[in-house]
Structures are given as structure tokens and as C-alpha cells.
Amino acid sequence: MGPQFLFATGIENSNPTIQNGKVRVDEMAKCGHYEHWQKDFDLVQELGVRFLRYGPPIHTTFLGPGRYDWSFADATFQDLLRRNIAPIVDLCHFGVPDWIGNFQNPDFPELFAQYAKAFALRFPWVQLYTPVNEMYICAEFSALFGWWNEQLRSDQAFVTALKHIVKANVLAMHAILEVRADAIFIQSESSEYFHAENPAAIRPAETMNSRRFLSLDLNYGRRVESEMYEYLMDNGMTRDEYHSFMHNKLKHHCIMGNDYYKTNEHRVSANGHTRASGEVFGYHVITRQYHDRYRLPVMHTETNLWQGPNGDEAVNWLWKEWANVLRVRNDGVPVVGFTWYSLTDQVDWDTALRENNGYVNPLGLYDLNRNIRPVGEAYKQLIADWAHVLPTHSVCLRVPIVMPHESNRTWAKAQEEDAKELSASKSTAEANTIPTTS
Predict the structure, then answer these.
(1) Pairing mode, if any, of strands 51-54 and 86-92?
(2) CA distance 124 to 119
(3) Mean pLDDT score, 81-95
(4) Is 284 inside any structural domain?
(5) Does residue 436 belong to any structural domain of this protein?
């Protein structure tokens, strides 16, 4: 059987558009992955990492309805299979192909589900997926802040983007399960918190702390709070659309992936404006809030910090995040994985990809010359130290992972058949449940 704790890193495939759709921000291109992908996979192995958040660039792979260019995916995924690295496949990371337009397009969910199924059929040995990365952040940055893609700034546009993105994720999960019945979905989503800085700010902070859950509430079929229900209805979601989310229950196939950075906590002023607060509660407290809400296994799917002038800032952040992961586990939350994101330095995230400056952000385990950073050495040692310790403490937290080289074995096929039976029984039970109303 595969490893019981998912130590991971990622190769970022963000590709939103800016400047009214005229410029594509392709992080794989900016970070040199198209030229150096084999070297990048060498680095993954060098670290002792067996799980990689990774996916093909959707804007150059998905050419039209039923039309795909799999050339890059065929080369890279065949190499991952050869190396027995299990990809957590990131199919949509902040952008869509030009021919789809943006996240206001109501055709996007169905089209994306077709793409997801086509990928699963081409790579049937892949088990782990993040169909749409950071659904809430994608909708917020594209349609509420006006930074990417549609570059709109309204609640109506935000709700429209959000419902299309979450529907796309749900339909993609269904489509993939038709091909791979034991697929596991890791919802990489930003875990946020909003702190009121004075009594007059309590109300707007409470609203933001309710809104942060919308993507996962809809994705997991959890009824939203009454204020959020009114917010959704007032801004373009129909009752039928809402109830369709409530009836799509795939939680038994899911791990709640949550991302945490220093920028995930915010100070809220009386007029509703926010600014960064830095780390106040930290990963431990905020993850407990999300777990208490959804009661799912948890994976820490993203974190990083700039390597600063002392050279040990990122190393210290890694230690702090890992200490938080252990604290969460010791408190009884089933944490099954941890990720430093990403493998290499990133480019232009200092402006949240809003500007095409080519500025290198020293956030990676390796720099863009593929030289290891101090945090890379520290992560490599952390994995070596803990990889064989954690399974002895997690017999009941085993994730039914099938590693790529094991995908054709008899027991793996039996597991997939068991998954089909479980899914069918769950569907029958849900069909016999009286729907609840909001």
C-alpha cells in the first residue's frame, strides 16, 4: 500500500488573464517549467516527496468542446508514472482558455466536466484530484476585487463566478468518478479569518467570516447561514441552483485541503475595509474552525514564506507550520498531509499576478536556477525525520492511496470495485433522504 502521510510540494500552474483578457499570466512559463520539467521532477525525488500538486495548463490543453492537445500532459504524466510520483491533479488554477472567456460564462461548468472526464480517461492511473484550485479566491480576485479574468467588482459578479466555479468542481468530481470510482478529491481552499479592530467593525467582520465558507458550503452540500442565503439570492443565485448544490453530496470522496499564509488573516475597519493583520490565530486555530464545520480529513495544501535577509525566515515558518500541523493532529483532527508550495520560486505574486513585471519571489524550495534553498534542505530533513514516525500514530487515519506503480494490481482493482459499491449505496441512501429546506 502507499504511504500513509502525504508530504507534498507543488508546481504552480496559475494562468489567469489580466489587462482585460489581453495578457495571460502563465506561471509555468514564468518559472521555466516548460523547459525544465524533467529537472523539476528530479528535484521532487531528491526531496523524498512522493506527492505533487500538478496539472496540465488548461489554456493550451483544452482547445474547444471535445478538442484537446495532450502533448505536454502525455510527456509529463508518463514521466511521473515512471517515477512513481503520485500527482494531485490541479485541472483549473485561476484561469480558463480564451475561447471560454471567463468565469461569468454559464457554459463553463459543463465544459469543464467534459475536460475533467477526458483527462481521467487518458490517465486512468491518476487517483488524486483538485479539480478547481481555491474556488473562493478565484471568484473573489476575478469578480469582487477586479484583478483577474472578467475583472469585475460587484457582489452579483462574485456570486455568478462562485456558483459557476463550484458547479464546475462538483460536476468534475462526478465525471471523474465515472472513470475512477475510488478517486479522492482534495479541495485546496484558502482558510481565512477576519478580525474586527473595534466594536463598529464587528458587523462587517462577521459578514466576511460567514462569506469565507461559501465555496466549501456549496461544494459539500452544507446549508449556508441565513444571511449568506439572502446574499446569494439577492445576487443572482436561484433557489433551484442552491438546492442543486445541497443535493450533491460527495463528502465521502473528499479531503478538506486548506491553505494558510501570513496573509490569510485580516483586520477589518468599521467601513468594511480590510488590511493584512499577519499571523494572529495561526493555522491551528483556523483549521479547527474549518474542521468543526465540515468534519472531514484535512490536508495542509499550501504554505510558504519569502526567504528574507537572514536566510532562515522560510525555515522558521516551515517549523512553525509543521508544529501547528502536529498540534492539530494531537487535538484529534485527522490531518493526512502537508505541502510547501511551491517547488521553485514564483514570479509576480508580490502583486498577486496583477502586474506582469517578471519579479522573482523567493518562496520556493529551490530557486529558479534549480539550486536548493535553506527551506528545501529543512523540508527534506523534516520528511526524512517524520515519514516513518507518523504512520505508527495513524493506523486509523490511513488514506486509501493507490500509488501509480500499483494501479494495475489485483488488490487495487478490488479497492476500486469496493469504492463503486460504496458510492452506489451512498447515492441510494441520499435519494431516500427527505430534502431539507433553508
Answers:
(1) parallel
(2) 8
(3) 98
(4) yes
(5) no
